[in-house]
Amino acid sequence: MNSIVTGRNIDQQLHPYFVDLITFSTLEGKWINCPPSDAADGLAQIIQNVLDLPLVYVALLDPAQDVEGVAIRLDGQAVLAEEFNHISILLEPYLIANPDSSSLIAHPISRDILCFTAVQNESEGRQTVVAVGSADLTFPSENDNYILALAAKQGLMFLKQISLLNQLNQAEGSERSMEERINDVLVRNTLQSQAIKPPTVEATQRNNRLLAMLESLLVHAPFGFAFFDRDHSYVRINKVLAQMNGLPVEAHYDRTVGDILPKATAQAVDEAIERVFATGKTVENMEISGETMAIPGQRRHWLTNFYPVMSEGHTIYVGETVIEITEQREAVEALRESHAILRAVFEGTGDGIFLKDRQSHYLMINAAGASFVGKTIEEMVGKSPVDIFPPNTANKIINDEQQVMATRQAQTFEDVVTLDGTTAYYHSTKAPYYDAEGNVAGIIGISRDITANKRTEKFNQLLAKAGEILNSSLDYSTRLESVAQLAVPSFADWCVVSFGSREESALEVAVAHTDPDKVAIVRELQQRYPSDPHSQTGAREVLQTGRSVLYPTISDDMVVATARDDDHLQILRTLQITSAMIVPLKARGDTLGVMTFIYAESGRRYTEADVALAEELGRRAGLAIDNARLYSAEREARCSAEQIAKRVSSLQAVTASLSRTLTSDEVAATVVEQGISVLEANSGLVVLLDETGATLKILDAVGYPAEVVEQWRQFPVSAATPLSETVRTGEPILLETKAALGDRFPEFAQQPTTINEALVSLPLIIEDKVVGAVGLSFATPQQFQIEDLDFMMALARQCAQALERARLFEAERLARAEAEAAQENLAMLTQERERNRLAQELHDNVAQAIGYLNLKLAGAGSALRTGDTDEVEAVLSELKQVVNEVYTDVREEIFSLRSERHAGSDFLELLHRYVDKYKRFYRLDIHLEQEVANDVLDFPAEVRLQVVRTIQEALMNTRKHAQVNKAMIRISQVNGYIQINVEDQGQGFSISPTGEDKENSFGLRIMRERMASIGGRLDIFSTVGEGTQTIISVPAHLGLSHGSAHQDPSQYEETNSDSGQAGQ
After folding, report:
1. In the listed set 902, 930, 964, which residue is the last one of a domain according to the structure?
2. 291 and 409 assigned to the same domain
């Protein structure tokens, strides 16, 4: 055996299971004592492990001994019983139809493609079939074939070893006999073979065992079995074949094949039987097709073997074995038809279909897929994308396919491929395919050329965007520039739009390229080498004929022929133009210009399909140009009206801006900025006369160098300058050119800082008096119209009026500042008087009380020494009363001082806080009524402090002199004043006709001074026994938001109830 292995060049590193295969026949204890199916499965397992195959089929057959062992293993596992018959049926057509060659089949479970190979070995009626399926489509190799043949041979050796044992077991277990006439024949044949010797008991027993074996075979065989005599009559038939024929077993005997089978079927069987009788040789694997009585009208298929039954060298009977293969035959035909359809699809479709390995090498590809890149199938197989596509494209394809294999998911991709200057677009669907172990083996894909669709889609997008641009306005020059840029780079590397006609040369209006430097090159070419008006090619040809021109390929010879000199040729070559097309801009039958599309550095080339798309773009652009021209006259007329409206609007804007200015400097800045903007000047200034009327001073200047402004910061009215003369004469000066400036003001024109080409000087007049001038300068010569002068003079008048308003505002501001200063002085004076009042109060009340206390304390001391306790108690009681009064007076002064800390609170809050405290400390019931809105009482801080202090003083007088515990505060609005009445029903006092009695009171004088400091007044009305009324009047305009006194006063009234009592 080792010599055989060596001679066959078998690899020395074969799997250890190969040893089991070599010694298979010697393992008697393991194999002979097990069922044949287990032996077949053991051999299948060895083959599977040795060759690493996903599918193994092994059949061990010895019909003579009724031995049949069949095993199937899939993916390393034995097939389950419920799946065994189904898989056997699937494999049987391949085993029968073409047992010695390879076929492609589908994996019974995963449906992967397998290369199916079968090896058969027969000897002495014994047969071993070994069939395997491999995911390697190049299977089997020479070594693989040798191993399969060796396995089949070892299977026969196994059958031979167990033959005798099986025969013995069958003989001992058989209790059935054959029909009598078969028995007679076999007995006769046995006797003849023993030279007519009388049969012995042993011989008879052996013959009986053989007959039992034959009977068991006929009854239990899974295939049809029959014997025929020379008349082709049925001698013996089993139940299986009888059922195939559609008749009982008994109905066949003594009847011929022609009696049982339809004519066509019977003829084929008769011919085979006759051939065996004639030749004595077996007819093997004969396929017969036809009908039987079992299923009339249905064509069925059988695989038959006809063999002779010999006696003394003569054929006495013909045996037939029959296997119905109708299903298998139909499956084979269906498979062949499916293969034919798949082949037709694979070769007939216009889509590219391909199979790749894990490294993206092409294993299979159809003609359509190869034609996508201009190659044959043979040129593609075995190559990778790197060998076929540009580097960037190849890397993308490989990365996409690696992603598909990594994710194990089918994915779609869109690839852009440029080969030989032609760009194509492909939509691909790629999915992984797997080997027997479930590992990803490679990629299967379908690609469709979508170049035409993609080109149309992109151009439709281009047309849609171009339509939006062309319809956006009537300024077609700008729009054509945008359209040209839109075509780059999706439809061109260059796009040039030119206007012209049959009589005129093309005038370039738009050039687009992704590189601005390249645009500059084209513009340089247009300037240095303008188009020849007499040329009959290129743009001139399109303008003359109105038909597009296509240059699919621009060769260097064409570039040389176009160049006018060496420099021209060098520039043209740097552009790297490879293809071009020129289409007309048409509208209503007229050619208005041309659009030129150029491919250059991208290497792409145009086709007729591109021309059709470009012509549609040209048609739309031409129509937009024509529409714009139709409206040009109307637009020009409208522009004149719009100019007037614009100036009116500008004046309104200037007026609005000036209305927000408060100072002369702000007015000057606004006039200069607005004047420059509206009149499109590049610089301007405003000058005013000083108090002497002899000098002009610059208020504001814009657009001049700083040193120039400083040089002319002030200059005499007598100077020979446009502004000075305007101020002297009161007339505007308009100098449209620099020459006109030099003629009228030669010295001024020679100033090195005078760089303007035109100048305007406008007088500023207030009440027929010139107070200054406005100067505007222009960087280009001007042509002023009467409308321009009117507009500028209107601007100057507005400036003069604004300056006068600013002057008046400044005067009013200064006056207000002086008034505020005076009021502040008055407030300071009031504070000084308040301090004096406080000192007087302390002197009149506290000091006197302390002196009185000192006197009484001395008297109390004398009384104590004399023992006059009654006197001491009287003095102490009086001292307690005096101390309480002094304490009360001091606390009131403290309240007055503390109120100044709350100057930041609003008036009502401050008043409520004071009233609340006053009620709590002095148990004085104060009723507050409000008949005006809160916002009317929104006084400034100083005003509300003075008002509250005055109210405090009035309430203090009530406590001290009225001798009541109730008071009323009423707030109302009367004749432009906010009136606050503080009333009580106390004892009152008499007021002399001259008012001198109380006028001399220090407290009343302070109250009057407080009110005078804020522009208010104080009035006091009192009657003895009826009470006193103190009226505090505050000018209503001091409230920051007065004017809402018409609201219902009841909503402001406060009562002693829980909801309205002051201080609650």
Report:
1. 902
2. no
